[in-house]
Amino acid sequence: MSYAKEGNISSTEDRRGGSKSDKLKENSIYVIYSNSDADDVIKAVKGAIGRSNILGCVKVVGQWVITFSNDGDAQLSQGTGLLIKEDVCEVIGVGRSIVTVSFFDVPTFVNDEDLSAKLIELGCGIKSLWTRKHYAKFPHIENGIRYALKYVTIALAKDTYMRNCSDYKCKNCALRGHRDSRCPKTQCYKCHQFGHKSFQCLGDKRQQNEDDLNYLVEHMEAENLDTEANVEETENVSQTIDNQNSEIGEQNTSTFAVQKELHTQCRRTRDI
Questions:
Q1: pLDDT digit string (tens) for 65-81?
Q2: pTM recorded for the entire structure
Q3: Closest to 35 in 3D by CA, of 55, 13, 64, 57
Q4: 187 and 234 in one domain?
Q5: Number of independent structural domains in the chain
Q6: Residue 14 pLDDT
Q7: 120-125 contacts, C-beta under 8 A, 24 or more apart
């Protein structure tokens, strides 16, 4: 069984040796409701008990810890429950540890009943069915993680709180829903943009692509210039050949005229 320890509340009795801490602990309850603010919880507690003997209202690991000035109010709230925004919330004494148990690397052939039986041996009371996690890309294949929600009570060391290990939060901004490597407040020192780190930066790749594109454009332009020069040279050679052909044609015409004149003179000589 694998689980993560969220934190331990140090006992005032260990530091001060007084019984006041034990008394306040007996006067404290857990309100199992995370989707509200302190105002809603305090108003609901006052409305349910009819008194305002509240010493503290603190949110711990997503749950509210209410401390009263006397143990009677704590006992009363545990017996009646609490209504917050039309939701009936469970109320548990602080003396009972609240955990969410997660199992990791569990083979598929292991039955949920076997996991429940093992927890019962440790003093747990299972309050929900087991949920099996699957791979995101293969939704029909289990990844070995199972957890029991909503809550499991277990006889562990006093003042021990557990959390679901799969619920992670960013180490940079302390917000949930993303890793620190994808934190919107993370700045890359290469491109000075937010949202990624330097080893994930694509700035160098983009610059290389731009350089390659510029080189290709320049190379094509140079080839086009060479092609235009060749065309112009070809046109000049063609014009030269045309001029030479024209001169040859003129020379041939002149030669023909001379030959005709000589032929005429020869005929005149015969007639004489």
A1: 888 887 777 777 766 66
A2: 0.33
A3: 64
A4: no
A5: 3
A6: 42
A7: 122/154, 122/155, 123/154, 123/155, 124/152, 124/153, 124/154, 124/155, 125/152, 125/153, 125/154
